[in-house]
Specification:
Chains A, B: This is Ribosomal RNA small subunit methyltransferase E. The structure is a homodimer of 251-residue chains. The first copy, chain A, is an alpha/beta fold and 251 residues long. The first copy, chain A, contains 8 helices and 11 strands. A 6-stranded parallel beta sheet of chain A has the order 8-7-6-10-9-11, sandwiched between helices. Chain A has a 5-stranded mixed beta sheet with strand order 1-3-4-5-2, with helices on one face.
Chain lengths: 251, 251
């Protein structure tokens, strides 16, 4: 069932809900739904519900809540991905797949080795597009939270954010090459539910050693880690991490 | 360093190696390498080595082995993915990413809900293309094994192969919906190194309940499993499984 995110909370007391704009268009034109059909809606408080459509006008879809949904589909920890701008449309693939895999937010970062550069105008456009991709993927994967895409950060901005997280990992190829493979597992065995994990990934060229040092110096809780012995592409590494976090915390 | 797969084994006694055909073209034309430069080569016995180029002619690249590489980058278990034909070029994405994540082989399967159909001619072409993608991804991710892409299988063929594996999991959305999330972890806690894991994934429309039953009836070691509480797209689910297997067995 398609799901739609609304701007108001959904509580036990909510009975009627009105959808307008894009949602109205999608329900009436794209899905060609009719009264009595049902959709999922998700409130601003992340409460999901089943809405039975009662009326569709030129401007609005009106429905009545027939059931609150109680299954929790969100990761029990918060995961914020900091991504050094990769080439082409790889960040779009990351946004879509990371949303399916439960990411909380994505932060695009300018790094030394990145070939891709965004000026202000391009950044605004790209971020709006990524936010749309996250929204669509959240609807399709039945999430109750739409991941937030932050403005373009510099490495200095990331350093300042390190303390927002209880844990901060830097995926670093040199750590993989050293054969030290236990660091991620050790970290995941120490997390408490509700913790925030920051994770930094470089672009295709990797992270510059100076940048790794800047991050490591930002806090004792910052660790480099490997994601197994194989070399993963820039867009595959964040998906491995999210899958591992899900496996460790949800299964 | 680029790596190339050769048809002969590499042993302590191997001193000189000659590369021809595509590898010669790639080394001399694409990479424009010159004598004294080094490349990785991987023998048919999965032994990797560093080769120093001694001569490049119009037809051949000749080099001498300067070091055997001992790091093991292969998953300690064998993972064969059985994939119900997904739409568009998603199988290509799966082949590339699954190779990075350590897959042993990929088996395309015709299923009831699949929208995509391959006739014999198309199958031959598609499989050759997938095999090429696996080869390129194996080189890039520094693997010592190139995953094998099997011919198109029917569900009946898969049922007959179930006993090739010590463990066989069917990723089934209904299992995810039932909230039974422990089955994959339970299976992975029981595997021994060297075991073979078969894993079946449906196309976008999912697996038909009848097909699930056919697989379940094929052996006591066949289990349905969920990959966490979120709905993953057809091309994301196999990547989640491989990441989880790597996390459970390699980290």
């Amino acid at each position: 069932m398609q799901r739609y995110f609304i701007d108001n909370p959904i509580t036990d007391e909510t009975t009627e809900v009105t959808l307008t704009g894009n949602d109205h268009h999608h329900i009436s034109r794209v899905m060609r739904m009719t009264p009595n059909q049902k959709i999922y809606i998700v409130g601003s408080n992340h409460q999901a519900a089943i809405l039975q459509i009662t009326a569709i006008s030129e401007e609005e879809v009106i429905g009545e809540i027939v059931d609150l949904v109680t299954t929790d589909v969100e990761l029990p920890v918060e995961v914020i991905l900091y991504i050094g701008l990769p080439k082409g449309d790889k960040l779009e693939l990351i946004a879509q797949k990371a949303t399916e895999l439960g990411v909380t937010a994505i932060v695009p970062v300018t790094t030394k080795h990145a070939i891709t550069k965004w000026d202000n105008k391009k950044a605004t456009k790209k971020i709006a597009r990524l936010q749309k991709i996250c929204q669509a993927a959240a609807e399709q994967s039945h999430r109750t939270v739409v991941p937030y895409v932050y403005d373009l950060h510099s490495l200095k901005d990331v350093v300042e954010r390190v303390d927002d997280h209880e844990h901060f990992v830097v995926a670093y190829e040199e750590t993989a090459k050293s054969g030290e493979n236990k660091l991620l597992k050790n970290m995941l065995m120490e997390i408490d539910m509700g913790d925030s994990i920051g994770a930094f990934f470089g672009p295709e060229g990797g992270i510059h050693p100076e940048e790794v040092n800047q991050l490591l110096n930002a806090g004792d809780h910052v660790k480099t880690c490997s994601l197994g012995p194989r070399i993963l592409r820039a867009e595959t590494a964040p998906l491995y991490l999210l899958s591992a976090i899900s496996y460790a915390t949800e299964l």
